[in-house]
């Protein structure tokens, strides 16, 4: 545009104003409320959260259990063979790189902090205080594994699978609105599609902002614990956020296939090295034995835990909402971010491979991780007279207090801090990529200034909310959003199922039986029938011109060979049919019948310029049927000689079945048997 005689150029971008502007407006209102009125905002949001948790806890439990069961059934069925992309699509990333990125985007930083913290907190304040120490230990580990196990990944998988399927299979933008394609169809780019992406963008920014804020606080506490910072301070937190987001922006600019992949691979190797050190330096046999028992205990109780609401134990409701419901709400609120990122990196995988890997592999790793650090921490606590349970209130320090009980504590401190820092950076990296993708309606490449913009916005929001004390209110709102979003996810599941069923029906559809006989001699007539809709008059004409002459010739030839044959005729317009009946005495007669089947014609085809000859809303097709109840097929393209050949093919099958003597039980005529009994 011209301004003051100068040409002003806006920077190149692919942002969608209908998504970005409403999102920024809503986020601005919420953040301003949290910054300038933190106490009042937190009070209002906390009241809403408490009401939702007390009245709708069962909704969270039922939804997450449904997600888990749906994915298991989907994986076991034939729909699991469908590929996330074209039929010959190859995976974009290697299996190892794919798994590394799954961990980094999902819950890597959480494992570092809660691997020790959650089992110790459960142990210090047991769910069943009257139980024996042994039972309390097993319950502490069971509840930890439940919260970090397969259900969390089921939530992520639902979003990731739906977006990857519609994005790569239907060639739609890989963004949240695409998961509702079977419902919205041509309205996908309208109001409802924009609203879905606005909700996803706001939820993602809220979730990432709180994660950056609390992550910086925990990292600050860890650096202070090892002496790198003398005392925790707000200036240190600002420095950590700026450094982490700056590195995340640099990594994001290099592209998902480079920055995130290399950092994720290196960090997973570091995390596994720390894991193996604890396993070897700690009580190895006890940890491995605990892992075996933990897996069995988890699998034994998984159905019960999936539907547990403490409806009969009202005294446990506070524990239930503070732990399980909060976790479920947190995973759901993170689902747009993690699910969309998983979708982006899963092109070329089959649905079965996606479900098995995203559910089982991270879950087994999480169980092993929690066993090594959790059971290891419980063992250390018992050996040191409760050094960890006594410090259970300071969860951010428990990991370092635990590592202090092993050799080379300073080295393990530094490795742990490096792993946490890289998980911190890769989460921000992935988040910036996902925000860019949602804001640009599924684009894969973005101008560098957009990456800088979103990264800077996340950093400023985190610092401002931490400074004002409004971060807790924002976290509460993030959890509140989870309830309506869980309902949205249920709707997405049914959209996904509908898409998969249509997909399977489309690709498993076989050629019409009639086309087997095509030799090119009547191709003009075949084309006319393909691009037109059959009417009742067309069906009656087919009976008179093709079926009747064919059946008469067949009857004459059967009679010439000493075989009794009858032709049943009905010309009623509503139930017209023809039957060629070959009598077989005490056995079931051979019947080759023909009637019509009326199918609705899609609105997409009726009146379409591509099919100008299709004007009727119902299509009447001649269909064959048989005495044994087998479903017939369309014979609309057959000529007289071709119909005769098809009848003989079916009769040959019938005679061969009789000749083997293995099918007499089924082929026996029930009418003759009943008459024999009466005699």
UniProtKB/TrEMBL annotation:
Subcellular localization(s) per the UniProt record: Cell membrane
InterPro entries: BCCT_CS, BCCT_transptr
PROSITE patterns named in the record: BCCT (PS01303), PROKAR_LIPOPROTEIN (PS51257)
Regions crossing the membrane: 20-39, 51-74, 95-117, 150-170, 191-214, 234-256, 268-289, 325-343, 355-380, 406-439, 451-471, 477-500
Keywords annotated in UniProt: Cell membrane, Membrane, Transmembrane, Transmembrane helix, Transport
Signal peptide boundaries: none
Pfam families registered for this protein in UniProt: BCCT
Primary localization class, coarse: membrane
Protein's membrane topology: Multi-pass membrane protein
Protein family per UniProt: Belongs to the BCCT transporter (TC 2.A.15) family.
PANTHER family reported in the protein's UniProt record: HIGH-AFFINITY CHOLINE TRANSPORT PROTEIN, HIGH-AFFINITY CHOLINE TRANSPORT PROTEIN-RELATED
Protein name (database record): BCCT family transporter
């Amino acid at each position: 545009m011209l301004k003051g005689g100068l040409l002003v150029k806006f920077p190149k971008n692919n942002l969608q104003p209908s998504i970005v502007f409403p999102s920024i407006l809503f986020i601005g209102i919420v953040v301003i409320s949290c910054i300038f009125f933190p106490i009042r905002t937190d009070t209002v949001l906390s009241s809403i959260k408490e009401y939702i948790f007390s009245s709708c806890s069962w909704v969270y439990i039922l939804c997450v259990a449904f997600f888990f069961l749906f994915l298991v059934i989907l994986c076991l069925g034939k729909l699991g063979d469908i590929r996330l992309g074209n039929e010959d699509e190859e995976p974009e990333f290697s299996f190892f790189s794919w798994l590394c990125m799954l961990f980094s985007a999902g819950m890597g930083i959480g494992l570092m902090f809660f691997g020790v913290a959650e089992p110790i907190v459960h142990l210090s304040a047991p769910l069943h205080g009257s139980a024996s120490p042994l039972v309390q230990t097993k319950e502490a580990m069971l509840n930890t594994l439940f919260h970090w196990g397969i259900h969390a990944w089921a939530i992520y998988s639902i979003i990731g699978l739906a977006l990857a399927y519609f994005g790569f299979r239907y060639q739609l933008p890989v963004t949240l609105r695409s998961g509702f394609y079977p419902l919205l169809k041509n309205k996908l780019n309208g109001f409802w599609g924009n609203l879905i992406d606005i909700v996803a963008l706001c939820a993602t920014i809220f979730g990432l902002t709180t994660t950056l804020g609390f992550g910086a606080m925990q990292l600050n506490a860890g650096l202070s614990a090892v002496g790198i910072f003398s005392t925790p301070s707000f200036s240190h937190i600002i420095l950590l956020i700026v450094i982490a987001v700056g590195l995340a922006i640099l990594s994001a600019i290099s592209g998902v296939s480079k920055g995130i992949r290399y950092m994720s691979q290196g960090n997973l190797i570091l995390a596994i090295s720390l894991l193996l050190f604890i396993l070897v330096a700690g009580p190895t046999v006890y940890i491995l034995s605990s892992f075996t028992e933990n897996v069995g205990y988890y699998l034994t109780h998984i159905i019960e835990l999936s539907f547990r609401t403490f409806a009969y134990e009202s005294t446990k409701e506070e524990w239930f909402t503070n732990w399980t419901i909060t976790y479920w709400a947190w995973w759901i609120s993170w689902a747009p971010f993690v699910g969309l990122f998983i979708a982006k990196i899963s092109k070329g995988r089959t649905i079965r491979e996606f479900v098995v890997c995203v559910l089982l592999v991270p879950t087994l790793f999480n169980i092993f991780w929690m066993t090594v650090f959790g059971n290891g921490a419980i063992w250390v606590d018992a050996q040191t007279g409760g050094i960890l349970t006594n410090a259970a209130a300071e969860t951010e320090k428990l990991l370092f207090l635990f590592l202090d009980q092993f050799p080379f504590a300073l080295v393990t401190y530094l490795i742990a801090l490096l792993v946490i820092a890289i998980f911190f950076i890769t989460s921000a990296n992935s988040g910036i990529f996902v925000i860019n993708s949602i804001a640009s309606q599924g684009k894969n490449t973005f101008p560098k200034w957009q990456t800088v913009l979103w990264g800077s916005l996340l950093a400023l929001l985190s610092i401002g909310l931490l400074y004002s004390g409004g971060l807790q209110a924002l976290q509460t709102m993030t959890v509140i959003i989870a309830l309506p979003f869980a309902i949205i996810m249920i709707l997405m599941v049914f959209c996904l199922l509908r898409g998969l069923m249509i997909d399977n029906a489309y690709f498993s559809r076989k050629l019409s039986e009639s086309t087997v006989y095509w030799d090119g001699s009547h191709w003009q007539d075949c084309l006319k029938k393909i691009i037109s809709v059959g009417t009742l008059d067309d069906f009656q004409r087919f009976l008179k011109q093709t079926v009747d002459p064919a059946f008469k010739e067949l009857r004459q030839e059967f009679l010439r060979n000493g075989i009794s044959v009858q032709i049943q005729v009905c010309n009623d317009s509503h139930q017209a049919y023809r039957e060629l009946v070959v009598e077989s005495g005490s056995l079931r007669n051979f019947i080759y019948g023909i009637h019509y089947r009326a199918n609705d014609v899609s609105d997409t085809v009726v009146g379409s310029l591509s099919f100008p000859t299709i004007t009727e809303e119902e299509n009447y097709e001649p269909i064959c049927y048989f005495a044994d109840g087998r479903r017939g097929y369309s014979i609309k393209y057959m000529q007289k000689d071709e119909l005769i050949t098809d009848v003989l093919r079916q009769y040959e099958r019938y005679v061969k079945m009789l000749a083997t003597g293995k099918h007499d039980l089924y082929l026996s005529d029930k009418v003759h048997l009943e008459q024999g009994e009466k005699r």
